[in-house]
Design a protein that fits this description.
The chain is built from 18 helices and 40 strands. By secondary structure, the protein is α+β, with helices and mostly antiparallel strands. The chain has a domain of 315 residues: Beta-galactosidase, Chain A, domain 5 (Distorted Sandwich). Strands 6-7-8-9-18-13-12-11-16 form a 9-stranded antiparallel sheet. A 6-stranded mixed sheet has the order 19-35-36-40-37-38. A hairpin with a 7-residue loop joins strand 33 and strand 34. The chain is globular, with a radius of gyration of 27 Å. This is GH92 family glycosyl hydrolase. InterPro entries: 6-hairpin_glycosidase_sf, GH-type_carb-bd, GH92_a_mannosidase_put, GH92_N, Glyco_hydro_92, PNGase. It comes from Dyella agri. Its EC number is 3.2.1.-.
Length: 782
């Protein structure tokens, strides 16, 4: 097909952009106006800039590249801010994941001649992708717009829970087409689709399904799409067999495709002629069936009022974000509300309007339990989100935590292995990462009073997961008290993570009065001591014969080593259930604090981690870009030096976050990096989920009011907050001096005021007493 000179259409594109921005676009308002979805779209943040609603099933966003799995890391969300062109808009994306997949139902509006392959990014006109300028982009919570400069098309996107809405304004003098490509997927463009189907119904509904062999093998995703104007013609392609089906609308022509296209490389091109008004499209998806996708579209996709749906999306975000009112500078508010926005993207709804979802057994189930119907959620990056993202939801949205836990229980009951999710999305398991941290999410909610689910079924699911011997060599762990490195990779960190998870199981069992379960798992929770080496002062992996593996280099990090995405310097601090015991193991407060200072103050060449993509954001050995480090700055609280926690937190906040596309130093990991920011900005952090205590750090916003679900408000105030006053001088809770460095969950729920008075120099006496420290398994006195 002939290629038209794109430069002739750049003037048209700019004019269309300016006109729409000045007349047709709606301004964001409320808290949503402070959100900047560009944050994290550059570097290694792996966020997407497109349209979605809180915890929604649809993430409608532009894709700039979908490379093969060897090169997919930076495009885990499909979009990189530095890329010059867009290949289309797909409807499913992870936010901030360290692994890639999804990118389902790729749609591209085309003006003029149509090419059937995306082409090369550095060769304009080589395919259907189009160049664009960031100047033409509008990124808001629930809305995205861009001008495709090679076509002169203004594309606008918004979303509901199950439906993505498109509005395309085409040049009036060029034929308008919409291309649908079922071949691409984020992670592996070629060879990933096992099977797909594409058809056009008598009413013009385009629908189909595809099965992929990506991160979750055998994943099926179906869709249904409708347009606001009838097609004048259409062509369906099987690019693998070169079968082409042409259909035409109008009198005497059959609109129904009796012989739907089936194959592994399907595309559709839908033609609308020259248009004098915008073309709208609405797309629903389903993890279950084509019929369910159509039903989702029928119920959730009524009408054609794009602006009303955009208003609905903005309203949904304003409601979600209004749980916290924050005062501060524009940059502080943008950083805070964008973090809260990112923390409310996952897990995602993964259930159709009829209550059906697909489970880890690949079978269809109904979201119904003893409590009745519920919403089923998936996209569980457990190794990341149990630390702060899910505790944040327990604090702010316990109603959602209830739905999440019911979803977790259902997934365990549907699992062929009786396991809670490890890293699951759209109901399917990937077995990525380590530990069984779903137990921590459930226990954290339970001990903090979240109910509305079958607690006995939950505890049963937790115990079933923690005793499934075939997972991660739990069999040897239960027998030896540690995971042997000659049997299982990353055995050192797995032992530590299992021990913490066991402690979480114990806490829930204790709260339920299940004393036998409590005693068994409390004993297992001390297994971290079996990988502690007092000779070197590091956690180390052991062999089956009990000896530590040699040679040993605490700086060494590699996939499949003794530790998960970390080295000994980073993982040797991971005993969140027994920090006091770890302090004692190091030899007391002074030695513990000294070793922490060594961690932060070390001179480290980042090249040492060149083969481990996730280890980023270095401050010495501390790596804020990956989760094993996230609690470490707070550990000074447990050794009588909370002023050093305050000092380190300022280092981290100043160097690891900022407003801009590269404003996240590492993967947001489905909201964990952002949830860390929110808690830290408020002045406290859940070092030990499944405990009712939060370690106090220092605030980074002058005032925040939490609107709690019980109707109470909890206000955090920071007096004299600026760079010249980085330390906490004193703290009061409801007007009374607070001499301890922890806050209880119940104290927050009761409402009131936490007031910090900041000062220039550290207060070395505040919080130094042993009695002032957060709780731990071990009773420790220096």
């Amino acid at each position: 097909m002939k290629h038209h000179d794109p430069r002739a259409w750049q003037t048209v594109a700019l004019a269309a952009s300016l006109a729409l921005l000045s007349t047709g676009a709606l301004a964001a308002n409320g808290h949503a106006a402070a959100v900047d979805p560009r944050i994290g779209t550059g570097g290694d943040g792996h966020t997407f800039p497109g349209a979605t609603v809180p915890f929604g099933m649809i993430q409608l966003s532009p894709d700039t590249a979908m490379p093969d799995f060897k090169h997919a890391y930076k495009w885990a969300a499909g979009y990189q801010y530095g890329d010059p062109s867009i290949m289309g808009f797909s409807h499913t994306h992870f936010s901030g994941s360290g692994h890639s997949d999804l990118g389902d139902v790729l749609v591209m509006p085309v003006a003029g001649d149509v090419k059937l392959d995306p082409g090369e990014p550095d060769k304009p006109g080589s395919g259907y992708r189009s160049r664009f300028s960031h100047d033409s982009e509008v990124e808001q919570a629930g809305y995205y717009a861009v001008t495709l400069s090679d076509y002169g098309v203004r594309a606008e996107l918004t979303a509901g829970r199950r439906v993505g809405w498109h509005r395309y304004t085409f040049p009036k003098n060029r034929p308008a087409h919409v291309l649908l490509d079922l071949r691409p997927s984020i992670y592996d463009y070629s060879g990933k689709v096992l099977w797909s189907r594409l058809r056009v119904g008598a009413d013009g509904t385009v629908s189909g399904c595809r099965t992929t062999r990506g991160w979750a093998p055998g994943r099926e995703l179906c869709f249904a799409m409708r347009f606001s104007q009838p097609m004048v013609s259409r062509t369906l392609y099987d690019r693998e067999t070169n079968v082409v089906y042409k259909g035409f609308q109008g009198p005497g022509n059959q609109a129904e495709d009796h012989d739907a296209e089936n194959g592994r490389a399907l595309e559709g091109v839908f033609d609308f002629g020259k248009l004098d008004k915008p073309l709208l499209a609405k797309v629903a998806i389903s993890p279950v069936s084509e019929a369910n996708a159509i039903a989702n579209l029928d119920q959730d996709g009524k009408g054609w009022d794009f602006d009303a749906r955009r208003t609905d999306a903005t309203a949904a975000w304003n409601k979600a974000l209004s749980v916290i009112d924050v005062e501060g500078t524009p940059a502080q508010r943008t950083g805070f509300y964008t973090s809260l926005y990112h923390a409310m993207l996952a897990p995602t709804l993964s259930m159709d309007v009829n209550g059906e979802y697909r489970g880890p057994d690949h079978q269809v189930h109904k979201a119904q339990d003893k409590q009745g119907a519920y919403d089923f959620y998936s996209s569980w990056s457990m190794w990341d989100v149990y630390r702060a993202e899910e505790p944040l939801m327990v604090l702010l949205r316990p109603d959602l935590s209830t739905q999440f836990i019911r979803s977790l229980i259902a997934t365990q009951q549907d699992s062929p292995f009786g396991m809670l999710p490890v890293w699951a999305y759209q109901g399917l398991e990937t077995w990525c990462m380590t530990g069984y941290h779903a137990v921590a999410i459930i226990a954290d909610a339970y001990v903090k009073g979240v109910r509305g689910y079958d607690a006995n079924a939950a505890l049963k699911a937790m115990v079933s997961t923690a005793t499934y011997g075939n997972y991660g060599d739990l069999a040897d762990y239960m027998k030896l008290g540690y995971v042997p490195i000659d049997k299982e990779t990353e055995a050192g960190s797995k032992t530590q993570e299992y021990a913490y998870d066991d402690w979480a199981v114990a806490q829930m069992a204790k709260a339920m009065g299940k004393n036998d379960v409590y005693a068994s798992f409390e004993k297992r929770a001390a297994n971290w001591r079996n990988v502690w080496d007092p000779q070197t002062g590091f956690m180390r992996a052991r062999l089956s014969n009990g000896q530590f593996r040699t040679p040993f280099d605490p700086a060494s990090a590699a996939y499949g080593s003794d530790y998960t995405e970390a080295n000994a310097w980073q993982y040797s601090w991971y005993v969140p259930q027994d920090v006091a015991g770890l302090v004692a193991a190091y030899g007391g407060d002074a030695k513990f604090v000294g070793k922490l200072d060594q961690l932060f103050d070390a001179k480290v060449d980042p090249a040492i981690f060149k083969n481990v993509e996730d280890i980023t954001g270095l401050i010495g050995w501390y790596a804020h870009g990956n989760e094993p480090s996230h609690h470490i700055a707070y550990l000074y609280d447990y050794a009588g030096a909370p002023w050093k926690t305050q000092q380190r937190l300022k280092q981290i906040m100043d160097s690891q976050y900022h407003v801009g596309p590269d404003g996240l130093v590492g993967n947001d990991d489905l909201g964990q990096m952002s949830a860390w920011y929110i808690f830290t900005a408020l002045g406290f952090y859940p070092v030990t989920p499944a405990s009712v205590e939060y370690a106090i750090g220092r605030p980074f916003v002058p005032k925040a009011v939490l609107h709690l679900p019980n109707g109470h408000t909890f206000t955090v105030v920071a007096e004299h907050l600026d760079d010249a006053h980085p330390y906490v001088g004193q703290v009061t809770l409801n007007g009374k001096p607070l001499d301890r460095v922890y806050l209880r969950h119940g104290e927050i729920l009761a409402g009131g005021e936490l007031r910090f008075v900041m000062q220039a120099e550290p207060n070395r006496q505040w919080g130094a007493a042993v009695s002032a420290r957060p709780a731990a398994m071990s009773a420790y006195r220096p």
